[in-house]
What does this fold into?
Amino acid sequence: MKQMLKTLTLITALVAASAATADTLLIERAQEKPAGALPARGETASQVEARFGAPQERLDPRGGQKRQWPTINRWVYPAFTVYFEKQRVIDVVANQAAPNEIGPKPPIR
It folds into this structure.
């Protein structure tokens, strides 16, 4: 009985240790960040640039082949990527901070 109790205690300790070294999820990091630290949906490109400075990179536009497919412009900042449609923010995606962080794939260049 004592041997079984020791074994159970050891297994519990191992499970707890492995959970402590788990990967960080991008979602967890994004939820911790205050909402004011990212551009808001509907802001103009000039407002984003005035507030956050010039982007690290302006990726090539995507879409626009047909009238119903609007052109999407993407600006890359160190912590996030901003997506614009007609010079308005439509989405902001947090970038992967570390290689062990599970999150979105890098944008198509």
